[in-house]
From TrEMBL:
SUPFAM superfamilies: PhoU-like. This is Phosphate transport regulator. InterPro entries: PhoU-like_sf, Put_Phosphate_transp_reg, UPF0111_domain. It comes from Desulfotomaculum copahuensis. It comes from the Bacteria.
């Protein structure tokens, strides 16, 4: 499928996206009932480890490849920002298990759904990047920005409800951190969109 040496970057971007999609699906399933958080956290950690391998492979290829399909800085930034998305999902699953949270709520489920939708948009944008159809990327980056704005609103609402309707101080601290980490996944997705926007603008 990829014949030229420099296409290893596009190949690994696609592998990273597929890995992200798997992690997003697992996180959504985890949050749906929170009865097997340890298992989900372990499986998402395995995907995070695999993502690190893809990241290292890209950086290694950068050091060995003279001609790259994108600017080196763009490849590095896109790789790092994609990895940040996966780190956020791994951290979310870890906290849910660490704190022994066994009751889901609408906010966590909505965050997980927004994250999964965002990652689908990233995947579509990466496909156009691979095909070198750069103008088609923007409709997906715009959608990512919209989803991130939804997550911002959701975070504000979740924190307001948490502090006004909950009297358990420990639970407040735990859920606040979980909401923050879940929202950070969408922030990381927006960072990916910003890198992609930059690539389009410079093309």
């Amino acid at each position: 499928m990829f014949e030229r040496k420099e296409d290893i970057f596009f190949e690994h971007f696609q592998l990273i996206v597929e890995n992200l999609k798997k992690a997003a699906r697992l996180l959504r399933e985890d949050i749906r009932d929170l009865q097997n958080t340890e298992s989900y956290a372990e499986n998402i950690k395995l995907l995070e480890d695999r993502g690190d391998q893809y990241t290292h492979a890209i950086f290694k290829a950068l050091n060995k490849t003279f001609v790259t399909p994108l600017e080196r800085e763009d490849i590095m930034q896109l790789t790092v920002k994609l990895d940040d998305v996966l780190d956020g999902m791994e951290a979310s699953a870890d906290r849910l298990d660490l704190y022994g949270i066994r009751e889901t709520d609408a906010y966590m489920q909505l965050f997980a759904r927004l994250a999964e939708n965002c990652i689908d948009e990233i995947g579509a944008a990466i496909q156009f990047l691979v095909k070198k159809k750069l103008p088609n990327i923007q409709k997906h980056t715009f959608r990512i920005n919209d989803l991130e704005n939804e997550a911002d609103q959701l975070y504000r609402e979740s924190i307001k409800i948490l502090f006004t309707q909950n009297k358990d101080a420990i639970k407040i601290i735990q859920l606040k951190e979980v909401y923050e980490i879940l929202e950070s996944i969408l922030d990381a997705c927006e960072d990916v969109a910003d890198v992609l926007e930059g690539i389009v603008m410079r093309s």
